[in-house]
Write a structure and sequence with these properties.
Length: 289
Amino acid sequence: MAAVDTCGGYDLRRYFVSRRVAIASILLAVAGFSAAVLLPTRALAGATGTTTTGTQATTTGASTTTTTTTPTTTTTKKKRPPYPVVSNFPAAGGLLVRSVAVRKRPDPRAHVIKVMHQFRPDYRPQEMLAVRKATGSDGNVWYRISIPMRPNGTYGWIPAGTVSLQPTHSEIVVNIDTRTIDIYRFGKHKWHGKVAVGAPGRETPIGHYFVAARFVPYRDPFLGVFAVETSAYSKLTEWPGGGVVGIHGTDLPQLLGQAVSHGCVRVSNATARHLKTLTPLGTPIWIKK
């Protein structure tokens, strides 16, 4: 038998096997390199809570692709104060502390205008009326309050954490020129009546005030059936202790519509009863011309 030469076939087969091994080695190397690039980047994104976008860097010969990453910004929420803060004004209420310094600015180092106490000298709770709020130099919320003192219209600042406030729902409007009073409740007009105001030289002061106290006069028909003490001051009034402007009933209704008082606002006993039911402590008062 003639011999068969198979050397050439074996050589060709070895060539194809070697080529396949080489291709497989290259693919494995590329896959390993891609995994080495991608996995740390994804792990970093997962650990920091950011989202990474763009193409990954791959280098093949002279060709290079640059990776661009865009971090996601995380917004930190502002901490809420550990006490209730009102946002609707005017708002009224009582102190939560024994005393508080009312300052010229919302700043713990600002000048002290007056020290307010939780209870007044007559043992009634001290009512506070705030007209707005602001962030102080210490980063805390402060209220701008109306201070019952001379001169009328004095305002100052106290820390919000020292007082408990609720928005007011009533308003008293006194018109000096027309000598009338109007009472509003939840924005609706509830009552209209005549008043007597301060005589010349003892004028009822105009401005913005609030109901500081309420009471039924005891055996004093001159003050009528009900009276409210305002945060306003006059030169001289019929009020106990003098100087404080009151709005009260009267036993002399024939004088209503005239300028005859020492600065107080006199109303009919019918109006006084409406004041009792419609105007709680802290009710804003606007005395105008």
